[in-house]
Amino acid sequence: MKVLVVGANGQIGKHLVQFIQDHDGLQAKAMIRKQEQASYFEDLGAEVALVDLEDDIETIQKAANDVDAVVFTAGSGPHTGKDKTIMIDLDGAVKTIEATKAAGVKRFVMISSFDTSREAIQEAPESFSPYVAAKHYADVWLRDSGLDYTIIHPGRLTNDEGTGKVSLAEQTKPDQVAREDIARVILSSLVHDSTIGQEFQVVQGDQEVDQAIQSLN
């Protein structure tokens, strides 16, 4: 299975590409914006596609034409304005979904926000509500896309070393989780078809990632 990792140069994306490359039967294609980012992924043996999420659907589709699954890990980041939140977290996600469909790819994994409900938008601080709203509508678009989707809602992300253990359910208590462990959850979701059509929250915990994923059955 070849997997297009959108946002590969992000912190989750880098972990994910490494895990995919280390997994028998999987091959990563890293979608990045800048040529100077390429060597990291090429050194891992991954393919590279130079695409900006603000490009058009057809350009993104070219990166997806030869893959079996797409993972959207991209984000505008905490230091950008509302404009980039709309262009990357909402429009970039929607364009990637449409590009995936146009490429004839069925499998799509979305990294969302912990709670993207309508209530979460209303209750979020003013500085955070545009991000939650963008993720809310991107999730809605994906659910209605006809793709074989999985939506992962991580808790507060940290750069701590991953433990390989999580707590995972349709709804969990808010908590933190290592980005490295979210990458492990993505990998497990890709290899377990039981996650198709499911979405769940993930925080730190004491259950091995594969066991947690299989408990969703």
UniProtKB/TrEMBL annotation:
It comes from the Bacteria. Pfam families: NAD_binding_10 (PF13460). Coiled coil: none annotated. CDD domains: SDR_a5 (cd05243). Signal peptide: none annotated. Residues 7-192 form the NAD(P)-binding domain. This is Uncharacterized protein YbjT (DUF2867 family).
